[in-house]
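[step 3/7] fold_predict: job queued, chain A
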Amino acid sequence: MRRLAARAHRWGGLLLGPVAVVLGLSGATLVFRAELDTLGGMPAVTSGAPRPLDAIRAAALLTEPSGEVRALRLPVAVGQPYHVEIVHGDRRVDVAVDPVTLRVLERRAPERSVLAAVHALHARFHAGRLGAAAVALVGVVLVVESVVGLWLYGPRRLRRGRGSRGLHRVVGAVSLAVGLVVGLTGVALALLDAATRAGPVATGGLAGLDALAAGATAAMPGGTLTTLAVEGHELARADLRVVGGAATVLLDRRTAAVVAVRPVSSDGAWGLVRRLHYGDFAGWPSRAAWTLAGLALPVLTITGYLLASRPRRASVADT
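[step 4/7] structure written:
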């Protein structure tokens, strides 16, 4: 069994090495996606009382006069711009607007950003649902590789290796716990992505944002509006921060009448899985640990190839 497991570990690493490098480096990058997304900063927002939401919407549409507003995202902190999502057919543009002066600060197409490409590579290999299924399969194999590696070259043999052999064993052992969490949650998210079918495309844009915002905040007193977005063909969705988590209010887009109020909840089970996968649960320490775990995959791949290029020893336990 040990000989068979050693061969499986060797060939699994050799065959999946390049894929492991891609997943490790892209995952380590995505841990800091929020910081990288705002790299370079943005012009400061003018201090003062924000203008009405409909005025902010109109200012954004001046840059894309033939588009439709599908969402308005309000900042979490004071001094940040409002973001208006405008759609032209299949093309999406995000417009950042100073809520006080109504000056457009930035326009960009998120789908064309480097981070969007990195995420599509990490989550789906740029191959849609079939690619997500492939990512899940690779994740399962990498988890099995980790467990087999621990069984073959566990703590008792860490001191026997030197050079690349020792580095391979130490990095594998140290990153195992975090690696298993990242791997298992990644498999779960990839399977969810592969099983999720795209819903019907919403039509029409948002108008009367101030009325929608007033209806949503009246339905959830004390809540802070974070997002207004198109929901289906006739509804608008309002997301609010409330004590204990978040709440969602569905409104009729034409009349701003409240249709439904979803109860206050946290991120839910899948939100927890996502936070565990990206290390978003203990601030910088967890994110740094998750980044190192992602970088461990290229190190293990390189040292594994170096070990495979050397003459094999007679003893399987010391391979």
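[step 5/7] annotate
The two ends are 15 Å apart (CA to CA).
Residues 2-35+115-197+280-308 form one domain.
exit 0
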